[in-house]
Amino acid sequence: MQILDIIEKKKQGFELSKEEIDYFVSGYTENRLPDYQISALLMAICLQSMTARETADLTAAMLNSGERMDLSKIQGITCDKHSTGGVGDKTTLALTPMVVACGARVAKMSGRGLGHTGGTLDKLEAIKGFNVQMSEEAFLNQVNTLGLAIIGQSKNLVPADKKLYALRDVTATVQSIPLIASSIMSKKLACGSDTILLDVKYGKGAFMPTPQKALELAEAMLDIGKHFHKDVRALISNMNEPLGFAIGNALEVKEAVETLKGKGPKDFLELCLCAGSQMLQQAKLAKDDTTARAMLLEVIENGKALDKLLDMVALQGGDSNQLKHVELLPQAAYTIDIPAKQTGYIHEIHALALGKLAMRLGAGRIRLEDNIDPAVGIVLHKKCADYVCEGETLATIHTQKKLSKEWLADFYAAYSIQSTAISKTPLVYKIIM
């Protein structure tokens, strides 16, 4: 078998066999095939796409390149969720304690953020002492006793994806649905949970620009789930504006805590209820959406959801007192209110632009080795469709230094304020299963 023949075959638009896919994945992972040849093949895949069968075989090849988590020692159905990423997306911090307080089991491996937002691990590490590393035995024991543990991904989990993603990132081959779907699903399948809920986002702050493209990606991932006999469901959700009000690690932890107290932003709570409802049905704990939502709202009202988060933080070495008294979380040197320059209705808040502005404050990283400042970020006061008066505060900036004129100009450019009223776009476009 020759890699040149495989490249030529895909360049011509033909289907690759399982053996050919296994050959190039194992060959590249084991350093037997060079970057330049795999780059050519990735570009051919981007241009010619892959069938559902090819995508499933690619997922399997990447899945088989490394270790898998064995969750068989956990009692009951184990649940996992994955978001394709966005600005202000702190969903895991609130959603997982909610579903666990209702009886679910969540054994979650999360990653760090790269680019305009922090990842789940970065947000949790804003809490003093929180440990994202633990032995497999301790991880499984915590899920069995508490119902919830969130840790970093093993270095040996899907090494093929790590190599292929790094190459895609520098060869303009990231935006391919088969490549995105196999990348996400190989990692989720390797984590070993019985059920997977996917939050596939679209819009200006997401990988997928439109709900139709997000739906295409979600359906590709559900096809992979069916191939592996997994219960996989998906939400298609709007990321044209940031989720909730807070952007930045400690600020998002605070907002998650407020949500578990019943005082969070309406859009963020709604996403948690939609996602949590599906997860409880996947775990066979609720028969329908109405029952599941009632269960989730009850554990917020009676404080059991917040208790689950506090217990997880304490068990993983974190200072849970910072969540009981959120003013103890990292604080920036300055808080600066940004006033509106005109009166009208907010037609657009460009999520990606605000995410990049938060990164420039130190809330995100350009390279994985970069340090994140947990204290900095942006807290919105107004969202899309809201009415704002000239001089009224649009957002409060948490920063360690004074804001430059360039930063402020870019902030205002992220907003579109017009005289005509608009309707709020629904947060969840569709649920598929």
Automatic annotation (TrEMBL):
<protein>
    <recommendedName>
        <fullName>Pyrimidine-nucleoside phosphorylase</fullName>
        <ecNumber>2.4.2.2</ecNumber>
    </recommendedName>
</protein>
<dbReference type="InterPro" id="IPR035902">
    <property type="entry name" value="Nuc_phospho_transferase"/>
</dbReference>
<dbReference type="InterPro" id="IPR000053">
    <property type="entry name" value="Thymidine/pyrmidine_PPase"/>
</dbReference>
<dbReference type="InterPro" id="IPR017459">
    <property type="entry name" value="Glycosyl_Trfase_fam3_N_dom"/>
</dbReference>
<dbReference type="Pfam" id="PF07831">
    <property type="entry name" value="PYNP_C"/>
</dbReference>
<dbReference type="InterPro" id="IPR013102">
    <property type="entry name" value="PYNP_C"/>
</dbReference>
<comment type="similarity">
    <text>Belongs to the thymidine/pyrimidine-nucleoside phosphorylase family.</text>
</comment>
<dbReference type="Pfam" id="PF02885">
    <property type="entry name" value="Glycos_trans_3N"/>
</dbReference>
<comment type="function">
    <text>Catalyzes phosphorolysis of the pyrimidine nucleosides uridine, thymidine and 2'-deoxyuridine with the formation of the corresponding pyrimidine base and ribose-1-phosphate.</text>
</comment>
<dbReference type="GO" id="GO:0009032">
    <property type="term" value="F:thymidine phosphorylase activity"/>
</dbReference>
<dbReference type="InterPro" id="IPR018090">
    <property type="entry name" value="Pyrmidine_PPas_bac/euk"/>
</dbReference>
<dbReference type="InterPro" id="IPR000312">
    <property type="entry name" value="Glycosyl_Trfase_fam3"/>
</dbReference>
<dbReference type="InterPro" id="IPR036566">
    <property type="entry name" value="PYNP-like_C_sf"/>
</dbReference>
<feature type="domain" description="Pyrimidine nucleoside phosphorylase C-terminal">
    <location>
        <begin position="345"/>
        <end position="418"/>
    </location>
</feature>
<keyword id="KW-0808">Transferase</keyword>
<dbReference type="GO" id="GO:0006206">
    <property type="term" value="P:pyrimidine nucleobase metabolic process"/>
</dbReference>
<dbReference type="Pfam" id="PF00591">
    <property type="entry name" value="Glycos_transf_3"/>
</dbReference>
<dbReference type="InterPro" id="IPR036320">
    <property type="entry name" value="Glycosyl_Trfase_fam3_N_dom_sf"/>
</dbReference>
<comment type="subunit">
    <text>Homodimer.</text>
</comment>
<dbReference type="GO" id="GO:0004645">
    <property type="term" value="F:1,4-alpha-oligoglucan phosphorylase activity"/>
</dbReference>
<dbReference type="GO" id="GO:0005829">
    <property type="term" value="C:cytosol"/>
</dbReference>
<dbReference type="GO" id="GO:0006213">
    <property type="term" value="P:pyrimidine nucleoside metabolic process"/>
</dbReference>
<dbReference type="InterPro" id="IPR017872">
    <property type="entry name" value="Pyrmidine_PPase_CS"/>
</dbReference>
<keyword id="KW-0328">Glycosyltransferase</keyword>
